[in-house]
Design brief:
The protein is mainly α. The chain is built from 8 helices and 2 strands. 52% of the residues lie in helices and 5% in strands.
């Protein structure tokens, strides 16, 4: 294997080691996930055998991590920007998943060594609404009823008790994570109009 490939692969393997619980064997996990022998897994971990793109994809998907580094000395993990899209629909469970995904994304960002959120939007960021429980509940009600047309809110008038406590708990947790992450918000002249 070429030296550059070894550097990138060894960085990737190191990131994998950091992603698994301390009591878990990377060799056994890798062998199981990639359907290879433990000897083959050891060769990949030591850099004697190059990981294929399909293997990297399987590992990244399983450990919910991005292959977001260049392998250059000045590069490394965190030198790229990644985006995830969480689909919304007219199902209450999908909205719950949407909030959980935001929370999980914020946890992932917060746990990074180098972290920063850059946010440009025409509306006030959702995180600011989540600071105030009643406002958060109203925004959740409005989004679920008027924007997403979720059936459970059809014909209802706003009542804070109509919003599941799990949702307001999630928004509070999201807000607390957001304020602990360095961020730059880019507001336009129309931002406050929302």
């Amino acid at each position: 294997m070429a030296k550059q490939e070894f550097t990138v692969q060894s960085q990737f393997i190191q990131k994998l080691k950091e992603s698994i619980p301390a009591n878990t064997s990377l060799v056994d996990e890798m062998a199981d996930l990639l359907s290879i022998s433990t000897d083959s897994a050891y060769r990949r971990i030591r850099g004697e055998t190059a990981l294929t793109i399909d293997e990297v994809t399987k590992l990244c998907n399983h450990y919910k991590m991005g292959f977001d580094f260049t392998g250059k000395p000045e590069g490394g993990f965190g030198s790229s920007v990644t985006f995830n899209y969480h689909h919304l629909s007219d199902e209450l469970d999908h909205f719950r998943s949407y909030l959980i995904n935001i929370r999980n994304d914020m946890k992932r960002i917060k746990s990074s060594v180098m972290k920063e959120i850059l946010f440009a939007a025409e509306d006030i960021l959702i995180f600011h609404h989540f600071c105030f429980p009643h406002l958060a509940a109203f925004k959740l009600f409005y989004w679920t009823k008027s924007i997403l047309n979720i059936r459970e809110f059809e014909g209802k008038k706003f009542d804070i008790s109509a919003i599941p406590a799990e949702f307001t708990d999630l928004t509070a947790e999201i807000y607390n994570l957001y304020v602990d992450i360095p961020s730059l918000e880019i507001w336009s002249l129309d931002t406050i109009n929302s």
